[in-house]
TrEMBL record:
It catalyses: tRNA(Trp) + L-tryptophan + ATP = L-tryptophyl-tRNA(Trp) + AMP + diphosphate + H(+). GO terms for cellular component: cytosol. This is Tryptophan--tRNA ligase. The lineage of its organism: Bacteria, Bacillati, Actinomycetota, Actinomycetes, Micrococcales. It comes from Marihabitans asiaticum. L-tryptophan binds at D133.
Length: 330
């Protein structure tokens, strides 16, 4: 099976519905066809100053969310980035291949610093760490959202450059955008994507939020002044977003929904979407609570994932160190 790898930062106390439908649901599907590696990018999360206790809590929560979404740790490696010490070792070597100028051009760095976030060196070298935690596992594919495309390009550039200079050590990974990946929009501003950092609370559906509040947010979603339930992203972004949610959550094609709702009002659609959200979120939360109730068990899962990922990472690290001329230790 070809290998695939993806990660998520432990930077919030809940995933939102966009993360769930746009990322985790795809990961769950992919593990059937790929040798899958999924990790919590805890090292990357250190680029934003956060209380240590909060990092610990969110790291376990993020891993629990993977598993509750149906990532099977018996089948896929589920682990913490920091448990693989080769990540930072290889990042050093890759950093020595990267030019300051190309890091300067990274839009994420530019965006975050222009917003006045103080720039630590970790934020600047973020793409090098990301390249390392991808290339260590030699995956053929990396599922990434639009926002991470530029970082994946740098990863590929660094791999090609390294291979050209030192021999074929790294697989050069391709981005993987699943055919039917759902993009969920902000409920209050349906032309922008739902985002944990830029959506207003009313526009954001946090999976860990109270179900009654979630339902209320769906019922208050912005629509338009027409009365027709039709998928048209340009002219009817709000209604289209509700249709996408109904389609993915209820596993019904949009065309079928358009027929079902023909002649009915927006209130009906909202009520149904609200129910679907609550039906999806309730068991998901229960599973997360169970997993978090037993941190030892969860840590055990992460340790087993790290053991599996670590074997691959160690082999790559040794090949990298050898290729650049570092002597073997002992
Ligand atoms: P931030 O605002 O901090 O960038 P985010 O809400 O965009 O946060 P990320 O942590 O950047 O969330 O993304 C995690 C995963 O969820 C990525 O794979 C990303 O592509 C996906 N994702 C994020 N927002 C959406 C959305 N609205 N619809 C579908 N997928 C999404
Ligand atoms: Mg994002």
């Amino acid at each position: 099976k070809p290998r695939i790898l993806s990660g998520m930062q432990p930077t919030s106390d809940s995933l939102h519905l966009g993360n769930y439908l746009g990322a985790l649901v795809n990961w769950r599907t992919l593990q059937a066809d790929f040798d899958a590696y999924f990790f919590v990018a805890d090292l990357h999360s250190l680029t934003v100053a956060t209380d240590p206790e909060v990092i610990r809590r969110r790291t376990r929560l993020t891993a629990a969310q993977f598993i509750a979404a149906g990532i099977d740790p018996e089948r896929s490696a589920v682990f913490c980035q920091s448990h693989i010490r080769e990540t930072t070792e290889v990042a050093w070597v890759l950093g020595c291949q990267a030019a300051v100028g190309e890091m300067n051009r990274m839009t994420q760095f530019k965006d975050k610093t222009s917003k006045g976030q103080s720039a630590n060196v970790g934020l600047f070298t973020y793409p090098v760490l990301m390249a390392s935690d991808i290339l260590l596992y030699n995956p053929q594919y990396v599922p990434v959202g639009d926002d991470q495309r530029q970082h994946l390009e740098i990863t590929r550039d660094l791999a090609l450059r390294f291979n050209a200079r030192f021999g074929e050590v790294f697989e050069v990974p391709e981005g993987y955008i699943p055919k039917e990946s759902a993009r969920i929009m902000d409920l209050q501003d349906p032309t922008s994507k739902m985002s944990k950092s830029s959506s207003s609370p009313k526009g954001l559906l946090d999976i860990m939020d109270d179900p009654a509040r979630l339902a209320k947010k769906v019922r208050s979603a912005v629509t338009d002044t027409e009365a027709e339930i039709r998928y048209d992203v340009e002219r009817k972004p709000g209604v289209s977003n509700l249709l996408v949610m109904a389609s993915v959550l209820g596993d019904t094609p949009i065309a079928t929904l358009e027929q079902q709702y023909s002649g009915r009002g927006y209130g009906d659609l909202k009520k149904d979407v609200a129910e679907l959200v609550v039906e999806t979120v309730t068991p998901f939360r229960q599973r997360i609570d169970e997993l978090l109730d037993d941190p030892a068990e969860l840590d055990g899962i992460l340790a087993r994932g790290a053991e599996r990922a670590g074997e691959v990472a160690l082999a790559t690290r040794d090949a990298v160190f050898d290729a650049v001329g570092l002597l073997p230790a002992g």
